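Notes, p. 3: input format for complexes.
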Amino acid sequence: MLDDMTKTLVEESQTSATGSTGMATRTTCPYCGVGCGVLASFDDNGARIVGDPDHPANFGRLCSKGSALGETLELKGRLLYPMERRSDGALARISWDRALERTAQRFKQIISEHGPDAVAVYLSGQLLTEDYYVANKLMKGFIGSANVDTNSRLCMASTVAGQKRAFGADTVPGCYEDLDVADLVVLVGSNAAWCHPILFQRIMRNKEERGARLIVIDTRRTATAEGADLFLQIAPGMDQALFAGLLIYLARTAAVDAAYIDRFTSGFDAAIRSAKELTPNIAATTALTGLREADVGRFFELFASTERVVTAFSQGVNQSAQGSDKVNAIINCHLATGRIGKPGASPLSLTGQPNAMGGREVGGLANSLAAHMGFDPASIDRVRRFWSAPSVVEHEGLKAVAMFEAIAQGKIKALWVVGTNPAASLPDADRARAAMRKLDFFVVSDNTRSNDTINSGAHLLLPAQAWGEKSGTVTNSERRISRQRAFLPSPGEARPDWSIFSAVARRMGYAGFDFRSAADVFREHAGLSAFENDDARDFDIGALAQLTDADYEELSPTQWPHRAGEAKGRLRFFGDGGFFTPDGRARFVSPKTPSMATQVSKPFPLRLNTGRIRDQWHTMTRTGASPRLGRHLPEPFVDINPADAAEFGVTHQGLARVSTRWGECVLRAHVTEAQPRGHIFAPIHWTDETARQARIGALVAPYVDPISGQPEAKATPAAIAPQAYAREGFLLARKPVAFPRGEWWTRVALAGAVGYRIASDRTDQEWLAFLAEESSTDDMVEFRDEQTRALRVARFDGDRPELFLSLGQTAQPWDASLAIFAENGLAGSQRRALLSGRSEATSDDGPEVCVCFGVGAKKIQAAIQEGCGTTNAIGERLRAGTNCGSCLTEIRSMILSQRRAGGEL
Ligand code: SF4
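Output follows (905 residues plus iron/sulfur cluster):
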């Protein structure tokens, strides 16, 4: 859905850029690391976003988030001009000239007074590779500081560390095609059904069409687990114990590939010795992991007897104080069996963000230099010569959590945050927010005018282009570089991030930043990757270093390495050795004894796990604008096991206060058997912009893996208690309202309106006064019932409802009220319908499961009761699940739970 300003800009651009409307632009989805190809075009109804049938990641399919991209393009809330904070705290528009000059001068001044390590840049996996490249070149090559890190540190740094230790380089050995041809897929710490939906659908297709088996290892029973042949609900932090046990089993049963071990690896015997110390037999593995011996045995036997095995892993492995060891424990089993870099056989890290991989390629992490080179003397010298850079930094910089700690301690005095929201996403986020307020100079480049980070005292805002406006490349989880192309005009004065960094670099007096286009930046990046490479480094895209602007424009998805002289990129690594260690051999890395960074205690007896949900992305800046995506799980919530809920007095659908040593939130309680006893789960998406008291990062312990620096986001000791308010209900409004302190609220995007779920202690009179203040008219209808404490008030602007509040025990169904509120002209009987929440034209289908066709849970449940026993049958009856397929696991799960309830299972 486009607002008027966006529509005008699009029409202008369609005429000027393509000469006609209706032409599709080939680009890439901006959300997860699957990196799906997208075709974007416009028709009379606005943006039309469909999957690109020719893109090898998705072959035309998109998940619910990708399918709803067209609803997220409006310019409401966009940062369109550079802005500066005045002494009264307000933001005022300034020129680009002033903004760039001020950034350059403040950075120069702070560097000259305190040295280069007094400045830092914090980047994002949402940025394009070209943006990352220029930021890294400026900081590490010219300013001379490696204090460049990225929110990808929170996502996959443990995989980087694990791969470097084992392979000598941060190399992903396999590819997506392996998921199509494997006979066994093991998913570890991955809710792929929600977080990498298109890859999960590829796995499920392999299961259906080829009979592949799926084993899911996770601490909680997710939608992914519902699709598994075997689900291992493992104790937190014990993945390395399970894979150490597997390594011993493989050795004992002669399932190892002795020739591969002998020719291509080192350290096998030591790894076996240390695995035995950790977990000498299946019984010990069972005791450590909390799994049933039979299940452990079945997993070991299936892994040992299946040649084509892919072990795919994600945040459940990475976001841990022992994340690097977990990654190596998995890799060890693949090295021992030689099942690496072969069709259908490999370890495969699933990256969270669209360009976490691109950031790794250019040195977006504080512990790498550029183009997968480290801080060894030869690499430093090579990069210095290639960049003609005077002050290439010679040591690693501070990783994300340490960087913000240095800000808190006053060691870092200037910070540039680009396209990310650390005040919401970092662990111990309140401390990070307080630290940012202390900065001498704090600049943010972003698309949005307001977020928790900007509101943490940013001095200067630089408007950056958003998805659909910017142009460059991203790399997905299988090393495939794809183009993101612009199909919208650049609004206001927004600029590409690479160009903002280049302009500041030039004003700081540095040469080497005269880039004219993203293509220019890409050519230099490709050139550096190939510079004095001679096959010694994994990352080499020398074949792309001479692309013309037209070639770059047409560039089709290609995997790296793509060395000069080769016709195409390489699908896999290491099937026949060729590791990037000094002796060319892979290393078995002995995992340490698992231990948790934190301990539960009487005040904090539970463990808080955090993660993503199906239809939202990160801090909801984009997905939060889509009414469709807001329907699946509209409120911040906490999942809790029924026994824990009973023990702590928490009720299903009641509100609960979740607290840790670091902070607290108020969340809707979902009591579910899917959550193991002793553990609670809460999503990461809500911020102070979208809810009061639901910024989950504020609760997470700031403990990190000592090798990767990745924070442990899955196991913070926590407490939970019911949180009572006098009344609950909702408010529908045509424009955002500002609640006074005290209300609990969460915002939901609606078509042409804003919805708030609320919980409140305010009286009727206080509410009526508040609504009068927020309304522009006196035309009002009201209903009150003392007994049920119901208060329903609608205020109208002509026939159009402007505000509608419903509170009390008999608050009407949210969905039905939305449908009535959406009407523009309400006559007398319809006004009453708004107050009563009843209309013949509306029904309450319950929470939406299939967002593509708007099918609610109640409808699906009714269809199951009437005999629809498969997802296909549901699809035929209701169309649910027949488009993007993101809801299929949920529908499958509903079918299974009805069969369980009916005693069939
Ligand atoms: Fe986007 Fe969904 Fe594809 Fe991820 S799986 S890239 S979110 S369409």
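The pocket of iron/sulfur cluster is lined by residues 29, 31-32, 34-36, 58, 62-63, 65-66, 196-198 (CB under 6 Å).
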